[in-house]
């Protein structure tokens, strides 16, 4: 891949221009493209067989209707593709190696010299020789992207890059299949590579599509043009072909003239349909010496070596002699003739017809020394004077030949052992050669580090029966893995839906061959699961088609007496199907035959692309099953009600997806026998129409209906409603008059009265915030007064909550100043990058305290989806300690810390940034308006609760401020948001070594700041909430290349304490983010005394010492159980068991003693692990004993946010809230529209092994009375009053 991180390995010269226009990851839209594209449905309930494989761009409706030609024409899929390993073989013969070649001036070459011209007489004349320049030598290689092939003695043009702009097509290019969707391609730079897929791995690898002779090499940014001598020879060759053609054809037919041909070499184009990567490749560009002569000379020398040399040395000597002759002519101006009968010439190279052909190709004609038969024959050096056209062409040709012969000689020498050359002393050549295989394999995603090799079961090695399978799926047998086969199959069905049966047939054949060759069932399991899943979706192969036709009676020897061909119409097939159904009633296996008939009709309807046949199958497929059989299929009695039937059916389909057709047939029969409109409606829509709104108790909270992927927003809105003071502050704004607000202008002085999130706000943000709070107040009113179980938030509320003001402004593409966006200079806030939100294991490396310019952008759910907006502290102008080095301590936002746009900063680590009071560089120019991407959901790009919470809190605080009143104190705790959610902490950055701190008072930095969240990094099992907070409050960071201790203490506690459990982790091995499912133990009450600034110093010191020992102990446990190559004990036990039982290989070093040593090591590791665990438990008890009497700062658990899902990129959110103040032992579970009462044991349960884990905990100060969970209007109480 040619980018800054992996620069092109062109060894020609660094001065080569960007040969193919965009040899880096260029994501700039071009050629009329926009950054938008239609998103495909890719979450339609695929089973586990395919959920494990990352593949994007699929469309359920399109895949289900693969047989519909009209649908295919509408979707314009590009057709069959290939995976990178097969592409690597298609680019050039896989048995050949391509080399990157560079050339430099030989030593002892001169800028000019005098050469003598010898002739038959004694006369001689001196001429000035002009040797080639370094630039000429560099350009002797055909192109910056030309790679040498020794087996062809030629060159291959090869380039790969990522660019949203495809290279210009040749005029003659007429694609036989559509090009991939360019809008989709531009969304991702590359399907492979770290950080190339910003929202997580979407595709396992590339899927390339070939377009032959698509690109004219002359039209590239750095054109490839044949040299003058090549063009001359090509022209001669074309004319010879045309002359031969004219002699055998009618002279009345017009022959195209050579001069009419304006296209150059045409390159094959390979385009990945899912990202911006594409590849260009040429046919072999022949070298100066035809490969036949090269091979003949080498074979001749191997067969007839010189007497004083080995066979390999003789080959080397011959080619080096030719190199010397070329160098002398090119670089030294040697112009004397070369007698071929001379002793040196004969001993080094000899004289054969092959040698004569080689020198004729090089332009050295054979002539007598003087025109006399008695004179010896000599080779006449060609003219290479650059001042003449002929000399210039010959000069270029000889330079190319010199490079090619040098490259061939070097590769030949490297391919043989040094001993095979005897004592021969090889020349040191001025050409360097390096294999390019790994480079281009990495560039296209085919390297072994990107796609592993060697996973093909031994039984399939060399199995030629599968050659058509590998070719059809677009992969190679060496790259086989379960995941890659799945990806290849799904990718082919996605891109070439018309041939879905063919690809399913390949999959079926692979499985059958695996069974017949004895591949173990464990190695076939994943393929079997995929087959079952695809069969449940109605996939069929050609074999299934044959069986289906036979079931319907087709075949000369069958019931119908005719073969199934194109002449058979729909009516005939329908009659055959109905006749088959009638016959099945008299068969003992009638049920099985009816199922076969339904399958056959489905297959033929898709084969014929017949909607009529498909409609018949859809409406009548269940009619052949009797009601008794239908009830038996669903395993229910006849007395079961419709609602229970639907429930049973739903669970049966989930548990047995391969039986979905059978279950549906059964339910269809029952629906008809009962004449149940409810069951019919369910079968048609998939939704139970019989669900009626049930009355719920007046004192139960109301649920919130989803608007589409808004379960996290629903959780947040319910949480806000439970907070009494916040609810009471918001409710009065339901009657806001927005017309008055829009007419009422705020002056610049008004806007400067308050800061929200450490910055001033704009008029647009104020108006927007008041609209949000108005909508929120209306929702709160509905939650209080509604009589139905669930209410629906408005679209406006969802949009205002999920889309920040900055996102909105960017989407509006505000290219000019407006009253809303350009209020005053004081409201403009510079953007700055945020650090990555994915968390690595905290003890694997010290956190780095970064400078603003070095922080990188990241994204995560359950941690924080970030943007490139600058971090901002709440009221950052207050309390700042400046040191001598003009640096100040500011917050380093964590996963749920706020951005400047949302205005609520979290607190985690600290970082040193330059004092903003110093002169700053000029502001950046206005950002280019961002084009709207159609793939973004209707509510924008914000997709996690933490950022949504920040945005909502920012808008609530902004809406509640009075901009005609002066702000209060710097902390401004008059704001209900700050009063409820914000506390104060003190951060201290000090040297690890106490002696360093004594040297300079400037080595310690302190700062007080507000916080709204505390953060706990969740990476390992066996931790509780105190353990996680301890790492937050006392950690080691890296600052200016030196490790420092960062200590955080709490100065002032808020009524509501929000603790973010950061579950997004980063796997160093896979280079992928993942969600940690580790269980973090927490209870109903937490005491924060140990984290307070006023905590006893002696206790803190004792606790720190114990914590250090505990951390070291846990680290050792982690290495033994979860570290690299862990767990060790089970691995050692498995090795011992395998060696004891295996008898396929005879291993002399493996005996009983060796196995006993392995078992003993396994027992030792197990014992050490148990000892470490016991020690960790003991140290934990000691640590808790230190603080057991410190209970003056109690907080009680009131809310728990849950994320259910295996990935940090998707899942479901719900929310628990404690029933306060009335029933503190009871909890409500808010799951969108469903609200239920659950016991506290469910909330506090151990979630080990589950994907439903807490990601945010909310505690309230004991006796603070800030949460009133149920706030419902009671008409009875009003009547009594």
Automatic annotation (TrEMBL):
UniProt-recorded Gene Ontology molecular function terms: cysteine-type deubiquitinase activity; proteasome binding
EC code(s) of this entry: 3.4.19.12
UniProt region (Disordered), positions on chain: 105-136, 371-391, 804-931
Annotated keywords: Hydrolase, Protease, Thiol protease, Ubl conjugation pathway
Signal peptide: none
Catalytic function, reaction form: Thiol-dependent hydrolysis of ester, thioester, amide, peptide and isopeptide bonds formed by the C-terminal Gly of ubiquitin (a 76-residue protein attached to proteins as an intracellular targeting signal)
Low complexity compositional bias, start-end: 111-127, 816-827, 895-908
Domain spans labelled USP: 702-1262
Enzyme class: hydrolase
Superkingdom of the organism of origin: Eukaryota
GO-annotated biological processes: proteasome-mediated ubiquitin-dependent protein catabolic process; protein deubiquitination; regulation of proteasomal protein catabolic process
Gene3D superfamilies assigned: Cysteine proteinases
Protein's UniProt name: ubiquitinyl hydrolase 1
Organism encoding this protein: Cristinia sonorae
């Amino acid at each position: 891949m040619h980018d800054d991180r992996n620069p092109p390995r062109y060894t020609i010269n660094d001065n080569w221009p960007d040969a193919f226009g965009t040899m880096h990851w260029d994501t700039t839209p071009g050629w009329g493209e926009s950054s938008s594209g239609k998103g495909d449905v890719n979450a339609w309930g695929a089973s586990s067989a395919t959920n494990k494989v990352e593949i994007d761009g699929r469309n359920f409706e399109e895949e289900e209707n693969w047989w519909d030609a009209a649908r295919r024409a509408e979707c314009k899929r590009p057709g069959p593709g290939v995976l990178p390993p097969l592409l690597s073989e298609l680019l050039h013969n896989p048995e050949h190696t391509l080399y990157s070649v560079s050339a430099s001036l030989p030593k002892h070459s001169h800028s000019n010299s005098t050469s003598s011209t010898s002739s038959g007489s004694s006369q001689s004349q001196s001429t000035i020789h002009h040797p080639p320049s370094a630039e000429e030598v560099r350009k002797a290689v055909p192109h910056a992207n030309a790679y040498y092939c020794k087996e062809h003695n030629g060159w291959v043009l090869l380039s790969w890059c990522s660019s949203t702009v495809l290279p210009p097509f040749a005029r003659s290019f007429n694609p036989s299949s559509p090009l991939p969707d360019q809008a989709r391609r531009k969304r991702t730079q590359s399907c492979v590579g770290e950080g190339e897929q910003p929202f997580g791995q979407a595709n396992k690898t590339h899927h390339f599509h070939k377009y032959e002779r698509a690109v004219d090499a002359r039209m590239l940014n750095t054109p490839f043009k044949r040299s003058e001598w090549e063009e001359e020879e090509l022209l001669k060759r074309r004319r010879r072909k045309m002359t031969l053609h004219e002699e055998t054809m009618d002279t009345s037919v017009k022959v195209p003239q050579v001069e009419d041909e304006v296209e150059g070499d045409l390159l094959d184009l390979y385009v990945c349909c899912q990202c911006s990567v594409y590849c260009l490749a040429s046919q072999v560009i022949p070298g100066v010496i035809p490969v036949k002569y090269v091979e003949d000379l080498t074979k001749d020398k191997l067969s007839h070596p010189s007497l004083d040399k080995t066979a390999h040395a003789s080959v080397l000597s011959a080619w080096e002699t030719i190199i010397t002759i070329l160098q002398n002519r090119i670089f030294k101006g040697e112009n004397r003739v070369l007698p071929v009968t001379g002793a040196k010439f004969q001993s080094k190279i000899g004289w054969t017809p092959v040698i004569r052909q080689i020198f004729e190709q090089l332009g050295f004609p054979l002539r007598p020394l003087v025109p006399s038969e008695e004179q010896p024959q000599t080779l006449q050096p060609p003219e290479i004077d650059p001042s003449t056209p002929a000399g210039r062409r010959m000069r270029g040709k000889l330079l190319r030949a010199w490079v090619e012969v040098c490259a061939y000689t070097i590769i030949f020498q490297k391919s043989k052992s040094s001993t095979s050359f005897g004592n021969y002393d090889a020349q040191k050549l001025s050409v360097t050669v390096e294999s390019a295989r790994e480079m281009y394999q990495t560039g296209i995603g085919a390297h072994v580090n990107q796609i592993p090799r060697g996973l093909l079961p031994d039984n399939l090695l060399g199995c030629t029966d599968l050659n058509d399978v590998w070719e059809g799926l677009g992969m190679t047998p060496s790259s086989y893995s379960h995941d890659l086969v799945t990806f290849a199959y799904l990718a082919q069905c996605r891109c070439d839906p018309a041939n879905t049966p063919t690809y399913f047939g390949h999959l079926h054949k692979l499985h059958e061959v695996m069974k017949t060759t004895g591949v173990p069932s464990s190695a076939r399991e994943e393929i079997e699961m995929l087959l079952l899943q695809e069969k449940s979706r109605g996939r069929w192969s050609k074999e299934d088609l044959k069986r289906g036709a036979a079931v319907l009676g087709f075949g000369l020897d069958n019931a119908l007496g005719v073969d199934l061909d194109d002449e058979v119409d729909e009516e005939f097939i329908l009659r055959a199907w109905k006749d088959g159904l009638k016959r099945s009633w008299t068969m003992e296996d009638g049920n099985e035959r009816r199922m076969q008939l339904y399958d056959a009709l489905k297959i033929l309807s898709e084969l014929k692309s017949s909607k009529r046949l498909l409609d018949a199958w859809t409406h009548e497929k269940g009619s052949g099953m009797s009601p008794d059989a239908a009830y038996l299929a669903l395993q229910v009695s006849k007395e079961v009600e419709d609602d229970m039937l639907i429930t049973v059916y739903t669970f049966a389909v989930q548990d047995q997806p391969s039986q979905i057709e059978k279950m549906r047939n059964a339910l269809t029969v029952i629906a008809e026998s009962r004449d149940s409109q409810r069951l019919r409606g369910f079968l048609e829509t998939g939704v139970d129409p019989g669900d009626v709104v049930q009355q719920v108790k007046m004192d139960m909270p109301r649920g919130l209906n989803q608007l589409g992927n808004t379960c996290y927003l629903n959780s947040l809105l319910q949480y806000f409603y439970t907070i009494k003071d916040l609810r009471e502050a918001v409710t009065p704004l339901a009657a806001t008059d927005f017309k008055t607000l829009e007419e009422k202008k705020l002056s610049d002085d008004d806007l400067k009265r308050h800061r929200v999130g450490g910055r001033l706000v704009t008029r647009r943000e104020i108006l927007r915030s008041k609209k949000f709070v108005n909508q929120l107040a209306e929702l709160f009113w509905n939650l209080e007064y509604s009589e139905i179980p669930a209410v629906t938030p408005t679209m406006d509320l969802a949009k205002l909550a999920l889309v920040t003001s900055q996102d909105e402004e960017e989407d509006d593409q505000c290219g000019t100043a407006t009253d809303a966006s350009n209020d005053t200079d004081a409201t403009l806030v510079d953007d700055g990058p945020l650090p990555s939100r994915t968390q690595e294991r905290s003890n694997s490396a010290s956190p780095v305290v970064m400078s603003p310019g070095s922080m990188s952008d990241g994204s995560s759910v359950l941690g924080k989806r970030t943007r490139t907006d600058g971090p901002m502290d709440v009221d950052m102008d207050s309390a700042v300690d400046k040191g001598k080095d003009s640096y100040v301590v500011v917050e380093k936002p964590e996963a749920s810390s706020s951005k400047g746009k949302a205005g609520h900063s979290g607190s985690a680590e600290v970082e040193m940034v330059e004092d903003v009071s110093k002169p700053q560089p000029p502001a950046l120019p206005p950002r280019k308006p961002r084009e709207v991407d159609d793939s973004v959901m209707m509510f924008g790009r914000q997709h996690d609760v933490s950022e949504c919470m920040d945005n909502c809190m920012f808008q609530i605080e902004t809406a509640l401020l009075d901009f005609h009143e002066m702000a209060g104190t710097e902390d401004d705790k008059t704001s209900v948001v700050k009063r409820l959610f914000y506390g104060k902490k003190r951060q201290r950055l000090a040297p690890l070594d106490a002696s360093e701190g004594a040297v300079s008072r400037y080595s310690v930095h302190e700062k007080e700041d507000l916080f709204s969240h505390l953060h706990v990094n969740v990476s390992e099992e066996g931790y509780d909430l105190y353990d996680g907070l301890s790492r937050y409050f006392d950690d080691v960071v890296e600052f200016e290349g030196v490790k420092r201790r960062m200590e955080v203490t709490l100065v002032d506690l808020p009524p509501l304490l929000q603790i973010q459990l950061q579950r997004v982790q980063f796997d160093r091995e896979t280079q992928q983010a993942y969600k940690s499912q580790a269980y973090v133990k927490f209870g109903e009450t937490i005491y924060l005394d140990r984290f307070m600034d006023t905590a006893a110093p002696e206790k803190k010191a004792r606790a720190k010492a114990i914590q250090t020992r505990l951390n070291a102990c846990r680290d050792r446990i982690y290495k033994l159980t979860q570290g690299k190559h862990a767990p060790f004990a089970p691995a050692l036990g498995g090795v011992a068991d395998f060696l004891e039982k295996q008898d396929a290989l005879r291993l002399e070093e493996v005996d009983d003693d060796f196995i006993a040593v392995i078992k003993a090591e396994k027992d030792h590791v197990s014992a050490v692990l148990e000892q470490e665990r016991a020690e960790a438990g003991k140290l934990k008890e000691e640590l808790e004993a230190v603080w057991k009497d410190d209970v003056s700062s109690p907080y009680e658990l009131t809310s728990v946010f849950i994320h259910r899902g295996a990935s940090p990129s998707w899942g479901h959110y719900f929310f628990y809230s404690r029933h306060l103040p009335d029933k503190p032992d009871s909890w409500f579970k808010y799951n969108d529209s469903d609200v239920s009462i659950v016991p506290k044991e469910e909330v506090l349960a151990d979630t080990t092994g589950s994907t439903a884990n807490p990601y945010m905990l909310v505690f309230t100060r004991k006796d603070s009375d800030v949460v009133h969970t149920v706030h419902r209007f009671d008409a009875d109480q009003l009547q009594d009053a």
